[in-house]
Structures are given as structure tokens and as C-alpha cells.
## 1
Amino acid sequence: MSQLAEQILNNQQMPEVDSLVTGCWDEEIWDVGPDKILEMIVGNKEKFMQVKRLFVGDMTYEENKISWIQQGNYDELLATLPNLESLLINGKIDHPNLLELEIMCGGLPLSAVNDIKTANLPNQERLVLHAGLKHYGYDCTLPDFAALAEKSLFPNLRHLGFLDSQDQDQLVETILETACCPNSKL
């Protein structure tokens, strides 16, 4: 385990920490996901039970382009953090207590949107997706996104945001037409 991880785990104030932000996790960041960080949290779960907000992948453009950030498997982490309310990553989500989800990437793939549609997120209040560009992996259609606005999918949703899409104007129109006012023209 790295010296920084040891310092975090042994910090007297750790029981009061309710938000974690991780940045670059390896010198070869474009080839390596955050598995060591995720394993450290899971392996020391008693130290992280109070965490409510987690951001994995806070990096500047100089450190790594958003489309190159590798992500890991979050299944064990999500099972380990029952009090988690806000998660910012690029990965599959299944967490009944999660209130907020934001996925930032250069190109959101259809597989990620489908994972969100089938995820167990009954208390979801805020969902923000950075769709991106086709040459970075964005392969969704406008109806794929519109399905996320269905009230039956997220009954507690109060904030739905779609950002950075190459089809931004058409996406907003589709959401408004299908979810908010399906019988009207904009």
C-alpha cells in the first residue's frame, strides 16, 4: 500500500470524512484503472462507512484526457459503502441509497446508458450525463436518452442533465417532447 493510502487510513479525522475525491492513481494513468484505490476502500471498509460522496477520476486535461480515463468494477465498492449518496464516475451503477449520479466522459457509450436504465437506483434524485462525441465512443440515439426521463424509471428524480453532447439541441428537444410534454410541439 502506498504511503499516501497509509496516511489516509491512519488519519485521526478519517471518521469525520464524508466526501472523497480521487485524482491520478498511477503514473501510467491512461492504461490503468482505479482498482488499487477501490480495493483499498473495500479492504478497509470500516474506515469508509460514513462516506456519502465519492468522485473517482478528478483529473485535469494535462494529467489525462477525460476520454482516456480508465475505470474499474464498482460492484464491491458499492456494496461496501451503504451510506453513499453521490457518485461521480464512469461505470455500472447499482446502489439503492444513491441520490446523485454524474458520469463524465468524452463519449458516453450506449452500454452505460443501458446500465443506468437497468440499475437499482430507486432513490435517485439527480442524474447528469456528459454525452460527448462519437469519435470518443458516444453511440447513443436520442430515444436512448429520452428513456432516462421516464418517471417510472426514477420516480424521485428532480434534476436530469445532459451535457456536452454533439447533438445537444436535438437532445434537449427530444427530452422535452417525450418526457415533459409528449403531445406538444416546441
## 2
Amino acid sequence: MPDEAEVLGLVALMLFSAARRSARRDPAGGYVPLSEQDVTHWSLPLIGEANALLRRAERQAKPGRYQLEAAIQSLHCARAFTGKTDWPAIAWLYDGLAALAPSIGALVGRAAAIAEAQDAAAGWRALQAIPADLVETYQPYWATAAHLLACLQQRAEARAAYARAIELAGDSAQRDFLRRKMTALGPAIGGGA
């Protein structure tokens, strides 16, 4: 069992996550999202080990959820070597993940990746395609919605989404981060201005 493709994919996924552990917080303990993390704080040996496991899994030609999730993380971690993120490839992998294992996390991640690969409007359309009853209490949905609405200059709607994301956030550092993003929208003015 340890050499099965999905087991290797899961271990690779865990290693990619562990490789970025020290970059998730700033020196004051504040939350740092993946896109803003300082890659010099990532563990290159752990990333290398994770990539090697992922390649072993891929050779078995039995794709699965954990392998796809690990492949997405591998592309994020490639930024440590290339200085950029291949968003079209990440969006493509999320398409596969959403087809294979259409979890709420996969669907929200897919929408976020589409926004980066194409534009905020395309990401917003993908986010809006997720059934409302599934996202009512899913904090990453509201944080993603707030970000995309802010990009689309829909400030009142973004403010409301940030408020919901803050309310659902279980981590005080994440709440502080989201409050700063909401404050950056400027003063509350009616009508989405």
C-alpha cells in the first residue's frame, strides 16, 4: 500500500504543505496568503522530496484526487524556482479535480485559479456557479468572493463578503488579514461604489 499512487500523492501533498509552514506567518504572527509568501522561507528539500513522490505516483498512471491536489501544490511551489505561478496549468488541474472529486474546496479553488488565469469576471462566474446552499458557511468561498468582488470594483458587495468571511474565520490572524483587506476598500459608500 505505501507504493500505491494515491498514497504517494497524499504524502507528497503533506510534504508540499509542510515545506511552506514557516512562510505562513509574518514575524509578528500575521497571516500571509500563499500568493504573498516569501519563497526563500520555503523548504526546498521538502519540495524536492514531494516532487519525487509525485513523479513516482504519476508513473503508475492511476490519477486520483490526492495526486491532483499534490500536482496543484507542486505548481504553486514551482514559484520558488521560476519566480512565477503557472495559473493556466493550475486552473486545468482544478478542472480535473472538480470533475474527479467535486468537493466545495475544489470548486472554490477552481474559481480562484480561473480568476488568476483569465480575469476576475471569469472567476466570479465560476464561483457563482457553485450552489448557494453549499457555500453558506464555507469561509474560503466568502474570502474568495470578497477578493473577486473587490477586483470587480463592487465595493459594497465585497465589503459584505469580507464581513461574512471574517465572521466564519476560525483563526484570529486570518480575521485580521481580512479586516485589513476590507479596510483597503475605503469608506463604505452605497451602491457598490
## 3
Amino acid sequence: MVRSLPPLNWIRAFEAAARHESFRLAAEELGVSAGAVSQKVKALEERLDVALFERRPRGVHLTDAGQRYRDDLGPALDGIAAATERIASAAGGAKLRVTVLPAVAERWLAPRLARFGEQRPEIAIEVSADADVANLAHSAFDLAIHYELPAGHGLATVPLFHDRMSPVCSPAFAADAGLRDPADLLNCRLLYDTTWAEDWPLWFRAAGLPEDGGQRGSGFTLYSMAVEAAAEGLGVAIGHHTLVARDLEAGRLIAPFDLQVPAPRGYAVMVPRWSSGKPGVSDFVDWLQSEAE
């Protein structure tokens, strides 16, 4: 039987535009112009003799037929992607592409990967440190390690761990600054990751101190930089204990106070539908869970 299929580039243009309800955002995702997306969608509508979008002065809106077509196409395209991955893996061995929050990639995942390699040497892991997983379900990544996301992102989510936080610094800094009481921190330089700027206010609030901590601080765009600066004696950083455990064990850092507070968000591993059946994915997720325990 000969299948009556529209050109795949028409389908991809429509699916991206339907998902975003925007020709411009679809064009950015596909690396083409918004005009090219519009032309392909128009050609598809003419082929089907059905209006898939309502064109409005401030954008486009899916028709009822467009919504039904989008819902039917999503699983079909996931199936094509999964079949492609399976045949590629069978031909050349399993390779998993993983996107991870930078701090978790550097300070939790990377030091552990050798253990997975010992267990499953036939699976190659490629790690990309990235703070954004908004489009994971339609990216080239097989899974992500990120903050737990609410339902509705088209991702299977497996919780990994929740962290706890407290100040950390070098032993020499603690001695020189005379850190005996949390209030002593008001006279210290506070180090922080700029994407986690709420960490210090959370801890100070729990300690019954002013949330601004005396407003003396240095921010870094990578958490590892803040930790290294603390280890070298620049000041005091907020220690996410899972991420600084090796430094605490080695004595490079100490936690001068007992007070710990929960980190604002937990971490999870997320798998899009199209890669869930790819060889190695479930094994890697199981291994991540065992490491998180």
C-alpha cells in the first residue's frame, strides 16, 4: 500500500508552530525564517484542504482541526525519533546525550561517571552543562538532570534528591574570622551563585538574622567558582551539601554552624517520550537513582 504522506518538512514546520502557537518561535527552533514556516504550513493546509491555524493580527491560533492534528502527530514523530535512535544504537553502540544543570554536572555527576563506565563500558555518555531544559522533549538530548518540573512538559520525571544548605568556608577563614555564632557572618564576605541568589536570604531568615546579610558579597555565574573561592579563603559560601560533600570530607571546607535549611528545589532526571525506549536510558536512570540514594 502506498502511503499518502505530506512532505516531512511541512509536518515538522506545522508541529513546531502548533506547539509554540507561533511561526516566529517555530522558525527559531527549526533554524529557518518565519516566512518559510508560514509557507510550509500554508502548503500543508492546501494539501489537506483544512485550515489548521487562524491568522490574527497579533499571531496565529490553532483551529479545532489543527489541535487534533497536533495531538495525533506528536506521538507519531516521537515514534520516528525513537526508531531512528534504536537503529543508530544497534549499528554503532549506545550513546546517551545528557543535559545537566552546570553545578550538578560539575560537582555531582562528573565525579561519579567513572563508576557507571565500569558497570556499562559499552554505553558512551556525552554531558552538556546547561541551565535550560524548556525544550527537552524536542531536543537532541536523551535525558536531563534538572530541577523537578511540574507535570505537563511531555517528560517522564524520576526524583533524585533534595539538598540541604548551610554556610561553608575554609578552616583558616573560619579561624581568622572567629566564626562562633551565625551573627558573625554579618561582617564577612558572602559568596554565591548568581542563579541561586535566594540561598543566603533563606538561611539568614532561618537563623533569625537580616536577610541581606550585611550586603557584603561576591557573585559568580558558576556555583563551582563560588565554592573554589570559599576554599581559597575569599569568604563564606552557601554549601549545597550534596554538591560540596567531597570538599567537606577532604577538609578543604568546613560547615561552622549546625543550622541547615532545605534547598529551594529538588532535582530529578527527566526523559522525553521519544528516547524512553532507547538502549541504555533505563539503565542510566536506574544508576542515577542508586547514586542519589
## 4
Amino acid sequence: MARIIFFLGGLLLVQLVHSHHSTLGLYDEDRIVEIEGVVTSVRWGNPHPAYTVAVLDENEETVEWDVQGGGSVTTLRLRGVDRDVVKVGDRVRVAGESSTRGLPEMFASNFLLENGQEVVLGIDSEPRWVGGLEGGLFQSRLDETLIEDARQTADGIFRVWTVVLDDPVSFRLYRDNVSPLTESASEFKAQWDPRASPYLGCEPRGMPYLMTTPFPFEFVRRGNDMALRAELSDSQRLIHMGTEQPPSSESYSLLGYSTGRWEGNRLVVETDRIDATYFYGDGTPQSRSIRLVEHFTLNEQEDRLDYLLIITDPETFTETLEFSRYWTWRPEVRIEPFNCVE
């Protein structure tokens, strides 16, 4: 087993806060640490895979490091990485954000395997060592025959949609801090403690938070209506087609009450009756007054889905907000059980 190698000072890996908000307060993104050692345990599950790596310290004593993978199981699947890529007994080199608590732990962004291949973990992590290595990057390989066969049976919007890992426009809906907050919302956010966030573990996300995540989703038919099935927390939104407004008896919920209509190749969904405390994982709140209008627009080739989100919440924001992103269709991607472990 090799020693710990520290890199202090500037940020050596580009990993924006919004890509892993669930780690806020636990790891220092401005202090990158590298370790080398032997993997002694693997936990393959969401919200992040976790590993234990045995490392020799400066006193020649073995220290067990807790390594939280910087990407979800879903992100790794999109890169072609499964649970057998890093196994117990493997010697690895790992880079990631160091602990703010002074513990032997890190939020990992990159693995270097014994065969010289580099595994990029986070959704917007950059390759670290690949330039000088013969092994290159570990990447998925698509079967062109599978793609062509899938095109023949694809059904418009009713398929699985996923992010493009190398394009932040695809996976980061809120690319800037959400500002203009009302005075009461600003006060609420100022008191937010990230270490007490309900989203540190497996808590389901509400709307519109659900639509900001990098997890895949699919549209499925439900008789005359339709549903949006998201992999995150195994969530499912029922979209009532052709219904102008919810019945007066409809209660508030995390995902709210959604009605939809078609405008050509565009699906327009309006949602209200949402009861969720947080608008996003940075402590920004939202109120029960929030109203959403979503536009899902399918391109002519039917392999890209553009998204526009329009938000009004007069108790939280001083103006109407608009955000956009997109997803693409990859026929090998399926919605998998979330299998989250606290």
C-alpha cells in the first residue's frame, strides 16, 4: 500500500457545488487530496457508491479511508462503470475533496486503476491523470446495432431520457445562484445548515427540485393520461391530460398536481399544490404558492428533449424565473431501482 499524497491550494478539479450539494459542509472543494492503497470494502448504491481504502500513513501504520464516490450509480452507469470495475483487493489511486472534519475521508472524483485506466466519477469531474497514462479513460461503448433496432420501435416522447455528461447545459438546470429572493426567503436561507439538510441521505425530492437532478426519467402512458417515472427515489409524477384544473379536494404533496396538454410536438405541463420545503439543495426555500409551467419539446430526429421551466412563487421570488436544460435518448439506458442507502 502506498502513502497519502496531499495537494493544497487552488482547486485542481472542477466540481461545482451544484453537482454535489449533498456534501456541503462535509468536504472542502478547495483542498484536494490523493491517496493510494488497497480497496477493502465496496458499497454499491445511491446516493453515492462508497469504498474503504487501506492506506499507509507517514508512521507506516494502516489507516482505513472512507471514500464516498463523487457520482451516483446512475452517473457511473452512463460511463459504463459497474460495481465490478473497482473490487475488494484492487490497488487504486484516488483523488477527491478532503474532509472538513479532519477525518480520513474524502469525496472522490477520480479513480486510477491498476491497469492504468482512469475512472471519472462525478458528473462534471474532469480527467486528472489520463494525459500521461497509456490506459486512457474508462468509457462506455455503444452497440450501434442496438441503437438502430431501438429506433425502429421508439415511441415519440415515451422513452427514457438522460443527461449528456460532457455538457453542463444538459445536466445543470440552475447554472447560477437563484436570486431574486424576497426578504422572508432570504432570512430563511441565511439560517440554513447544510449538515442538517434532509437531502444528505435518501429523502425524496419535491417539485421542481426533482427536475434539476442528473438522473434519467421516462414518460409512460397511463390510459388517457401519462406519468413521468424518475429513477431518483423511484418517484412518479402523474400528468392528467386535458384537465384544466385539479379538483378542489386534491391535497398538497411533494410532487403536486400536474395537468398536461399537447402543443404540436411540445408537451406543456402545469403544476401546483406542491408542498416542499426546499426549492433546491442550497437552502433556497419555496412556498405553497409556487406554480410551475414546463415545456418538453421533442426535436425532429426524436433523440433530444428540450426543457423550459417557468416558476412563479411570490412568497419566495420577486420575479418570475425561467430555466432551461435538455436530455438525450440513449437506448441502452433503463430506469433502475434507486436502492438508496442512508
